[in-house]
Write a structure and sequence with these properties.
Blueprint: E1 19-24, H1 30-40, E2 42-47, E3 66-71, E4 88-94, H2 95-109, H3 116-137, H4 139-143, H5 153-169, H6 177-190, H7 195-207, H8 219-230, H9 232-239, E5 251-254, E6 271-274
Parallel strand pairs: 1-4, 5-6
Antiparallel strand pairs: 2-3, 3-4
Protein name: RelA/SpoT domain-containing protein
Organism: Microvirga makkahensis
InterPro entries: NT_sf
Length: 279
Amino acid sequence: MKIETGRVPVPGELEDFFAATLVVPNLLALSQAEDLVCQQFELRSRRPKNRDITHKTPDSFPFDDLRLYVAVRSDTRYPETGIEGITFEVQIKTFLQHAWSIATHDLIYKSEGVEWPTDRIAYQVKAMLEHAEVSIAEAVPLAKNSVLSKTTLDILRIKKFATIIRQFWGDAAPKDMRRLALNIAELCKLIELPPKKLEQHLREYVKQRGGEPPSNLSPYLGIIECLLIHETERMRAFLAQPPDRENPRRVLVTSEIDLPAGLDLDTLPRAILVKDLGI
């Protein structure tokens, strides 16, 4: 259609005859992705032309995703391939922008006629997604807003466990601290062990090992070992309960974990015992 309507001065040089799409997590990653593309290819033009200027009015939400028009650079170190200098398009989108494009493409571009309701719905969704994009990109500053500055007792409890884990594992703690702290908090709740008691046990556990947690165990498995040693009866009572629909949780115990004398995990249905590389 572009060629037929005369929008391409030289039909043999259609700039989006070949087009690629680069999808990034959120708005904050757009500029980084653009820099990466420009490092690899020769930038011919971009749309929008300026990062800070848009043709969109405040009350409209048309398609305006970032498009770079680039070409493969000639390199004297390598033989020519024939594609050097040919302009092609690279669209850079966030996941939400990409999802909107896929979900509404047929509604906007391939409908049998021009229908106000379908266009309206498509762009209403785009407006909502743009709002979501901004909220995601500015989540940290928004979280400091007094209206949102709240918490729950459960979250405060999980934060206590996260603090305890960082206290003993430091840089060895995983980046995904939320998930680890949540799992430890859930286990301690099941055996009715408060955070302060776990902290006391870990202090003794680490002290007995020369002041450092064991390097051959992950923080999670290290805490499991600590609980098996210092809270043997609580752990035995929990592991002896058959898993059920309401609480299917089980506990993995690897061969690296030192078990207290008299604790036979083979008889405990919630224990998953890994004796070697096989289970």
